[in-house]
Amino acid sequence: MGYKILAINPGSTSTKIAVYEDEGLVFSKSINHSANELESYKNITDQFEMRKEKVLNVLWENDFNICDLDAIVGRGGILPPVKSGAYLINEVMVDRLKNRAIVEHASNLGALIAYEISKELNINAYIYDSVSVDELTDVARVLGFPEIERTCLSHALNSRAMAIKFAKNNKKDYKDMNLIVAHLGGGITIAAHEKGKMVDVVSDDEGPFSPERSGKIPVKKVVDMCYSEKYTHKEMLRKIRGKGGIVGHLNTVDIRKVENMIENNDEKAKLIYSALIYQIAKGIGELATVLEGNVDAIILTGGIAYSKKLTKELSNKIKFIAPVNILAGENELEALAYGALRILRGEENYRQYEEKELLESYSVN
Length: 365
Known about the structure:
Family: Belongs to the acetokinase family.
Enzyme class: transferase
Helix content: 40-55%
Distance between the termini: 46 Å
Organism: Paraclostridium tenue
Structural class: alpha/beta
Oligomer: single chain
Catalytic activity: butanoate + ATP = butanoyl phosphate + ADP
GO molecular function: kinase activity
Order of helices and strands: EEEHHEEHHEHHEEEHHHHHEHEHEH
């Protein structure tokens, strides 16, 4: 019998779960939460019990005996900066996410739900490749603004999963390779993987715009807008995340609709689409310098990577750097389950979450 693993990935309006037996998917389910349902909760943490019960109900409805589980893995929430890989969920982590959250975010519930169910079963629960994975080198942290230090927020879970998958598919060790992974979704982040570490990233506010985010923008002009008295603080934040990027230009977040607009000779759509590809290529080229040109492969992943038109045009711009490989999709539940599986098989070790050491290591206030 193989290892049975429950993966839990809470989002703002859904909780996605999957049960795996080794690498095989047993079943998966996206549990949707209506706006009316969520409005009754004052904050995200208050949704914990409701979401946990719905997860357990889905397992029951699929005739799955939770006592058969060997481990549970939840989407890593927004913690103080952590290293890549697995962390054992413990009371210290739970306290941070429940009572002292850095940011109220649905992903914080992944660890809380996993931990609560695991206690009843007396098995381990983990997070894997948290949103807060930060392995930047010291030189990569320095900015020309002394009051601010660069930190790393990226699509670490899918980025590392696709890098590990690519290495395995090519019968190589991820820790022996230099890779650039571009996650192309509602937000776009690009990561440089050097010998098994994400040493630098182009985050969603440092590089290309995306379907709903502004990407890198001229700071001076933004400061002028902030003090123009035309916009509130909330409105300016929405211009950066939610109303920026493609939706700001074309009133859609769907790349397929943009491509249809181009087919109908919409010149503005053609320009914005070309600019998106141009900026993604720039971000990949930027990280190629971090790896000093020693790039074994470039991986394009995320939902937008399903577009053959976009990936072809983008590949033409960057293929001189390294071979380009398409591994489309989000793949988050699979990434979580496979990470836990490697722990169970002894192929990787998990870390203990000790906040004092993290805070000292990363100088987080």
